[in-house]
Each structure stands twice: as structure tokens, then as C-alpha cells.
Design goal:
Blueprint (H helix, E strand, L loop, with lengths): L2 E3 L5 E3 L4 H9 L27 E7 L1 H4 L1 E2 L2 E2 L6 H9 L16 E2 L2 H12 L8 H20 L15 E3 L5 H6 L2 H7 L15 H6 L14 H10 L9 E7 L7 H4 L24 H16 L3 E7 L11 E3 L12 E3 L16 E2 H26 L10 E4 L1 H7 L2 H5 L16 H4 L11 E2 L5 E3 L12 H17 L20 H7 L1 H4 L10 H10 L1 H6 L4
Parallel strand pairs: 3-7, 3-8, 8-9, 9-13
Antiparallel strand pairs: 1-2, 4-5, 5-6, 10-11, 11-12, 14-15
């Protein structure tokens, strides 16, 4: 694929959308984040009445679902649950559970710890058959549990969950899927000895999120949130105090999980056809976003926090190969799997995207985020339907940019003028070695060698990183006037700080990652070659 020069050493592929080419041609660098939650639009003093029954509702994808290391399992440690804990409201916060055998679709951390307990931290040549046999047995157990065992029975979801999120979902999924449609997708599972993937795992996960009463079966995620908005006392004006909307990552994520860039076209807005695309053209994203904005307007929520789309090319599942394209560039010539070394990489053989493609993906995401920011500005100004709404922006993309080790932290020349390092909370700053955005690995002595922000799938946050997201949302909520309480009910005073000590104790990856995953990541390379773990954990969507 050829590229064209569009400015000072800025190139994008010829098949990139026109808006992306124009953005690259006009830009001297990446989008400057907006760290003002009000996007510069002040509102008159509020006249809220009472305290809503539903203090927090979150709508989103895997980042809201609590996905980690290839599975959704510790949903009590999602950022929504962390916020609810700090609100003193965790006992009332309703969220789905996925306790069986490490969750859905496959818990990579649990699998690797199981292997480590049986063959040690090094898989020698003579141990490979045993390791492969045990890994396949583990995956078969997971498949049986969710397809034919206790996990195949869907719990009765009575009251609507406050955590309304499903991994792998993009804007269209949240707009369209209902419980009836999800159940209709589930086929009679086969006990496949080769593929060993929980069939319809995403639908099975979603059915633990959705209410399925007789009057609920045609609800979308936004419809369910709207029902919670109507659930209010006579002395309150809204049923929801704070609503979080965190969607859009899956409109670009597959560029790095599949390592292919396929721009959206006809059918991008269809559940049946959109799966052929790995990234949405900005005009298509804008069209879908407008529909989401319309749905959110209908929800009676006092405050709404919208999150930007993170730059997926920073996720360590796609590692930059070689040195930067040029001094001052953000990009590497190629992006491949993290276990492929610079010396071993072969562009004619190894799956990859180019630096030009990565730049085009980032510019598209910048355009996504400009549209999200403008939507909030419009609604706060009353320009949507004449009603000024208390909507806020959380620029997750900007936060991740400030934590990007190989892009900015380790390359002073690549830093844009606005860039400053993100100040991690003191408890996390005290961790040694310092946590960063590289792929997590063990040091051979029971500890961590590098990484700590991303879990073992190279895409989703660790528990402490979910805590960072929660802390940023809490700061916005406090600015909006939300009150936080201790578990006993008494009001908290001063700025609310997430209990990162509690999260560190729960974060087994950061404290003692599997030593079977060393800095070479060759165990993951073996797992992907023989078990296809990338396919099973990162491509499990509709």
C-alpha cells in the first residue's frame, strides 16, 4: 500500500478517508486533549431536589464491563464498582457476575498460573506436550462450564443493573441489541476439541447484564438506563444522579487486535454487516454518535460524564518495531505482536500494520474525540434541543497519551507542546519498578519486571489502572456537586481519594505476575501459536 506525504514527515495511506488526510495535512501533531470537564461552558447554579435512588449508572463496552486479561470476571473491581465503593453505595450498586472458571471467554492469567503450577516458570522442550495438553484441558473445562454446565443457566435479572456494559460492543451494539435478539443468536454448542472457544460467549455475557422480565425483553442498553432514570421518588427530579457513557473504542480497536485496517463502508450501521470493518470512517462514527446522543438525552440523569476514545495504537498488544520513523515522530515503521523482536520481525511474513496506518487510525480517533467534545459543548450550551444539560468530558485519550511509555515518556523529542507526564497517585508511584504502559512481565523472582497499566491481554487495564479511571471520574463528580459517603453513611470531607491500597492488594498482576511470562513474552507467543489466545480473548464479539 502506498502513502503520500502530507506535511512535515506526516504520511497516511492512500485509502484513508478524506477527513483523515485533511486532518494529517493541517495538523502539526496529535489532538490536544481537553482536560476541562465543562469544555469551557459554564452552567447556572443547579436547582436539584433530593438524592436520586440510582446514584451511578455506567453504559459502555469492555472497559466499563471490567474486562481484564482476556475475560470479564472481577466485575466488583470495574471502575464503576470502584466509584460505587467510594460513594459508600457498593452494596446497592447492581452489576453482573462471572465467577465460574475465571469468567468469559478465557482468563489468560488463570490459565498461565495453572500452567506455572504444573510445569514451572519455564516451559522446557520436553514439557511442551504436557503444557499443551494441560492448556487444552483447561480451555475444555471452561467451554464445558459455560456451554453445558452451571454457566449455561442464565440468572434471573430482576432489577435493572446499574452496570450496563458488554465487552466487544461498539455504538451500534448498544443502540440495537435486546435480550430477545441476544437469546436468538445462541446456537446449540458443539464440544469442539480443536477450536475450544465458548460459543456465543459475548451473547452469554450480555444476558447477565440485561433484564429479561416479560416487559424488558425488547430493551436496549439505553432503554434500560432510561428505565432507571424514571425510577425516582416524588421529591427528586431525576432517577439517576450520575450517568457515565464510555463507548467507541471498539469502533477502532480491531486495527490493533486483528492488525489490519479496514475502513467502514456500507452496512457499518447494521448488526449483521458491520463486523467486516476494523475502524469507522469519521463521518460514520459521527452519524452513530448522533444517535447515541439522542438516546442519552432521553435518560433522566442529573449529570452525564462522556469519555473520549483512547488511542488504541498505544495498547501494547501491538508493539512498535524498530526505532521511530524519524526524530520527533510518534510512530514506529511497523506494529506487530509484542513477542516478535525487532531482529526477528519480517514484514513479508509477520502480521502487522504500518506506521502510516497507525497514524491514520490515530487521526480518525482524534476526529471521533473532537465530535464527542463538540456534542458536550452543544448540550451544555442548550444547542441540542434548547435545554442546557449538565454533561461533562473525561478525556481518557489524553490521560493515556500522558502515560504512553514508548511513544512519549521514553522519547523526549516526540512529546507535543501540551504534553506533561500523568501524576499517578502516591500509592502507585511507590510501586517498584514504576508501573508503565509496556506489556506486563515477571522478573523471574516472583515480582514484576515492567508494565502494570495493561493486563495480560495487552489491551485492557489492570485493577489499579481501573482505579485511575475511577479517580478521574470521581474528581468530575465532586466538581458537579455529588456527595460521597463512608460505608456507615456519614459524609466524606475533602477531596475523595480512591483507596489504591485496597486495589493494589486485589491486583495480583501488579503484585506478582505469572513468572512464566518473562520479558521476552515467548510463553505468550507459544500460547498464541498453539492455542490462538488472541483470537479467543480479543476477537470475541459479534
Amino acid at each position: 500500500m502506498t502513502s503520500r506525504v502530507v506535511g512535515d514527515k506526516e504520511t497516511v495511506p492512500e485509502d484513508a478517508p478524506g477527513e483523515v488526510k485533511d486532518k494529517a495535512a493541517k495538523s502539526a501533531g496529535p489532538r490536544e486533549p481537553c482536560f476541562d470537564p465543562t469544555v469551557g461552558v459554564a452552567l447556572p447554579p443547579p436547582t436539584w431536589r433530593g438524592e436520586p435512588r440510582n446514584r451511578l449508572v455506567v453504559v459502555g463496552d469492555s472497559l466499563t464491563h471490567g474486562f481484564q486479561s482476556g475475560a470479564v470476571f472481577n466485575t466488583d473491581l470495574s471502575y464503576g464498582a470502584i466509584i460505587a465503593y467510594e460513594l459508600g453505595w457498593l452494596d446497592a450498586f447492581r452489576f453482573p457476575r462471572y465467577a465460574g472458571l475465571g469468567g468469559l471467554p478465557i482468563n489468560l492469567e488463570l490459565l498461565l498460573r495453572d500452567l506455572e503450577s504444573r510445569v514451572g516458570s519455564d516451559i522446557s522442550l520436553w514439557e511442551l506436550p504436557l503444557a499443551l495438553f494441560r492448556a487444552r484441558q483447561f480451555m475444555d473445562d471452561v467451554e464445558d462450564y459455560w456451554e453445558r454446565g452451571p454457566g449455561s443457566v442464565y440468572p434471573t435479572v430482576g432489577a435493572i443493573n446499574h452496570a450496563l456494559a458488554v465487552y466487544g460492543w461498539d455504538l451500534r451494539d448498544a443502540l440495537d441489541w435486546t435480550a430477545d435478539q441476544l437469546e436468538a443468536q445462541i446456537v446449540v454448542p458443539k464440544d469442539d476439541l480443536v477450536q475450544q472457544l465458548v460459543e456465543n460467549n459475548s451473547e452469554r455475557a450480555a444476558l447477565r447484564v440485561y433484564p429479561r422480565g416479560p416487559a424488558d425483553r425488547d430493551l436496549t442498553l439505553f432503554d434500560a438506563a432510561a428505565r432507571l432514570g424514571e425510577d425516582k421518588d416524588d421529591d427528586t427530579d431525576q432517577g439517576i444522579e450520575t450517568l457515565v457513557v464510555f463507548l467507541g473504542a471498539n469502533n477502532a480497536l480491531r486495527t490493533v487486535t486483528d492488525l489490519t485496517v479496514h475502513w467502514s463502508g456500507p452496512g457499518y450501521d447494521s448488526l449483521a454487516d458491520k463486523g467486516q470493518y476494523t475502524i469507522w470512517r469519521p463521518e460514520h462514527f459521527r452519524s452513530e454518535l448522533a444517535l447515541v446522543v439522542d438516546e442519552v438525552r432521553k435518560i433522566k440523569a442529573r449529570h452525564v460524564i462522556w469519555c473520549t476514545v483512547p488511542h488504541v495504537t498505544i495498547a501494547p498488544i501491538a508493539r512498535g518495531i524498530g526505532g521511530k520513523i524519524a526524530t520527533g515522530s510518534r510512530y514506529f515503521p511497523y506494529y506487530g505482536r509484542p513477542w516478535v523482536t525487532d531482529a526477528a520481525f519480517n514484514a513479508s511474513r509477520d502480521l502487522h500494520i504500518t506506521g502510516d496506518e497507525a497514524r491514520a487510525v490515530d487521526y480518525a480517533i482524534d476526529l471521533f474525540n473532537e465530535d464527542i467534545t463538540e456534542a458536550i459543548r452543544t448540550e451544555r450550551s442548550g444547542g441540542g434541543d434548547g435545554t442546557a444539560r449538565d454533561w461533562y468530558l473525561l478525556d481518557i485519550a489524553g490521560i493515556l497519551d500522558r502515560l504512553a511509555a514508548r511513544r512519549y515518556i521514553n522519547d523526549v523529542n516526540a512529546r507535543p507542546p501540551w504534553w506533561t507526564p500523568y501524576p499517578l497517585p502516591p500509592t502507585l508511584q511507590a510501586l517498584q519498578p514504576p508501573i508503565d504502559s509496556r506489556f506486563i512481565s515477571g522478573d523471574g523472582h516472583g515480582g514484576r519486571d515492567q508494565g502494570g497499566l495493561f493486563s495480560l491481554d495487552g489491551v485492557h487495564p489492570t485493577t489499579v489502572a481501573y482505579g485511575v479511571i475511577a479517580q478521574e471520574m470521581i474528581a468530575i463528580m465532586e466538581g458537579a456537586g455529588v456527595t460521597f459517603r463512608h460505608p456507615g453513611g456519614e459524609l466524606r470531607t475533602g477531596p475523595v481519594q480512591v483507596d489504591f491500597g485496597r486495589l493494589v492488594l486485589r491486583d495480583t498482576l501488579v503484585r506478582f505476575p505469572p513468572q512464566i511470562v518473562d520479558s521476552s513474552l515467548q510463553t505468550l507467543a507459544w500460547a498464541d501459536e498453539h492455542l490462538g489466545w488472541v483470537l479467543r480473548t480479543l476477537k470475541s464479539h459479534f
